[in-house]
Amino acid sequence: MLKQPLSTLLLIFFLHCTPASGQSSAPAPAPSGPINIVSVLKKSGKYTTFIRLLKSTQIDDQINSQLNDLNQGLTVFAPTDSAFSNLKPGMLNSLTDQQKFQLVQFHVVPSFLSIPQFQTVSNPLRTQAGGGTAQFPLNITMSGNQVNMTTGRVNTSLTNTLYTDGQLAVYEIDQVLLAEGLFRPPAPAPPPKTSDPSDAPSGSNGASDDSSDAKDRPHSAQKLVSFGVAVIVILHLWL
After folding, report:
1. 81: containing domain
2. Which residues contact 38 (CB under 8 A, 6 or more apart)?
3. Which one, 21, 109, 201, 236, has the greatest CB density within 10 A?
């Protein structure tokens, strides 16, 4: 009579002491050491083009310095390799070094933004691109928890949160952010300066004056000789 209850109690005790295989483990602790934006992006393997731009423009060093040396919060919008492949063929290679620098800076916001904080940002959102918000506008709208953004040329949204630690937030986007300021024509070169005779060096006038004086000297000498001859003749006749 006691065998069945005893075996049941032993079975319950054994199951209680054995951890369930499907139980989720505790999250891994955050890595120690300085934050590196390239290391964050490399974990996924989908951002090789963006990483190459970060390195070629040296903005990766700038971001790391802002995070680790200045303790400044940042938000980075990371386009996937598929996003870059959707650009017009040859467009990326046609950009100058300055344009590539502005392009990457347009994907960096100089403050930390969590998803809920996008609901209260002021439009246009200021990025680190030069030219100000007039040339590089980035407007944010929310649809539930979905963050949408538009630049006037591109409409996209945040598709994934890659990293967030209260200081750095990295979000995946499926389109490259392009702005009008990136394609504005360069300022026209100033017209060439025309020569003005009045601007001629003063020495040139002196040279012309000297030459004119030299031309007048023979005539003066001839007049002087003629006058001397006339005086001699008059004296000769007088005497």
Report:
1. 37-182
2. 51, 54, 55, 60
3. 109
pLDDT tens-digit profile of 89-126? 999 999 999 999 999 999 999 999 999 999 999 999 99
Residue at 213 is within a domain: no
Is 9 a residue whose pLDDT tops 50?
A: no
Torsion of CA 39, 41, 44, 50, to 10 degrees: -130
Q: Tell me the DSSP string of the chain.
A: --HHHHHHHHHHHHHHHSPPTTPPPPPPPPPPS---HHHHHHTTS--HHHHHHHHHTTHHHHHHHHHHTS---EEEEEE-HHHHHTSPTTHHHHS-HHHHHHHHHTTEESS---TGGGGGPPSSPP-S-TTHHHHS--EEEEETTEEEEE-SS-EEEEEEEEEESSSEEEEEESS----GGGGPPPPPPPPPPPP-GGGS-HHHHHHHHHHHHHHHHHHHHHHHHHHHHHHHHHHHHH-
110 token code pair: 């100089």
Q: So what's the pLDDT on residue 193?
A: 66
Q: Rounded CA gap, 208 and 210, in Å?
A: 5
Question: Total structural domains in the chain?
Answer: 1
The domain that holds 173 is classified in CATH as 2.30.180.10
Would you say residue 177 lies in a domain?
yes
